[in-house]
Specification:
The chain is about 75% helix and about 0% strand. The chain is mainly alpha-helical.
Length: about 190
């Protein structure tokens, strides 16, 4: 009778997520995961003969974790601040999500229109009471600024200063808002 499997596929995904969260995506190897889980490499290799499948499943789990974290913000400003705060609190996950080559070759517009961004854009539309097209227009310059701050912080290139970040985000958001109001005036005169 074959021995009962004690390390499940779900436990391997959860373990890989915790390993990346703690030590970074570069450490995710079958051997390191086995050591982290306290098992041999055999059950991992049996469940995931192609480790890219495991990495993709862990990426999906990390992306969901990240989205839930950000979407807890009550408005666009708070969501931007939470994005940057995530980079401060979870630098290994941030780098795994955004600096491990998953989006190689894509433009900022491609990223904003990617399926992973759909939930974020819907939340922005709903919370700011604007159309999806307006959400995309507002989102693009904010993403560049917010992601820049987050990347610098996640890579220890900048100290996390929540007040300075809030001020910068408010300045850019207010500028976008003024531009949108001017555009609305021009369109309504036609």
């Amino acid at each position: 009778m074959p021995r009962k499997q004690t390390t499940t596929k779900e436990a391997m995904i959860d373990g890989a997520f915790k390993l990346i969260r703690k030590q970074g995506h570069e450490t995710l190897t079958v051997r390191n995961l086995a050591s982290f889980l306290g098992c041999s490499t055999q059950p991992i290799m049996y469940q995931f003969p192609d480790t890219d499948v495991l990495k993709n499943l862990v990426y999906q789990k990390a992306d969901l974790f990240h989205s839930e974290y950000i979407l807890a913000g009550k408005d666009l400003l708070e969501m931007g601040i939470r994005y940057i705060q995530f980079a401060q609190e979870e630098p290994h996950l941030f780098r795994f999500l955004f600096q491990s080559g998953h989006f190689s070759g894509l433009s900022l517009k491609d990223l904003i229109q990617a399926p992973e961004s759909a939930e974020m854009l819907a939340a922005v539309s709903f919370k700011e009471k604007i159309t999806k097209e307006e959400a995309v227009a507002v989102f693009e310059p904010l993403v560049a600024l917010v992601h820049g701050y987050a990347s610098l912080i996640a890579n220890n290139g900048m100290k996390y200063d929540p007040e300075a970040i809030r001020e910068a985000l408010m300045m850019i958001f207010n500028g976008i808002e003024r531009g949108r109001k001017q555009y609305d005036k021009i369109v309504s005169k036609k």
